[in-house]
Amino acid sequence: MHTKYLMVSSAIFMALLGLATSFFPIEVLSMHGTTPDNATLLLVQMMGALYLGFAILNWMARGVLIGGIYARPVALGNLLHFGMVGMMLSKAAFVHGAVPLAASAFVFSVFAIWFGVVSFKPPLMSGSPGN
Q1: Which end of the chain, N or C, is less surrounded by CB atoms within 10 Å?
Q2: Which of 104-126 are b and which e, b meaning 16 or more Cβ less than 10 Å from the residue's Cβ?
Q3: pLDDT > 90 in the chain, percent
Q4: 57 and 69, same domain (yes or no)
């Protein structure tokens, strides 16, 4: 499986989330029905920095062979992140009946499944069929 598309799409996705939460935390919180206070704003901005860090990690690893034992920390870190956030968003969407949360949970879950496949299947080398 060619992982460049996965790494580029996840990098762009996380960069957009990181920029939004770093520079527009009040708007992000308001959009989700949360009253912003100083501690919450700081946590959301810290989350934005984490997303930007993951985005640059994935962007820089876009050309690296990933799968099996190759770049396993990158693949497993992404799998853990996307899997846990997907589960948290799914639970929140179920409890609150919120369609936007369900849509977000779907996106995170798709990335989690994709990183799960990449993490536990051997990679296709360059020039292999299907690459």
Answers
A1: C
A2: bbeebbebbebbbebbeeebeee
A3: 72
A4: no
Residue 116 and residue 99 in one domain? yes
- Both structure tokens of 41: 């704003």
Q: How many domains does the chain have?
A: 2
pLDDT for 128 beyond 60: no
The position carrying tokens 């598309």 is 5
Whole-model pTM above 0.85?
yes
One domain for residues 56 and 106: no
* Domain shared by 38 and 80, yes or no: no
Segment 6-27 mean pLDDT:
96
Domain span including residue 9: 1-63
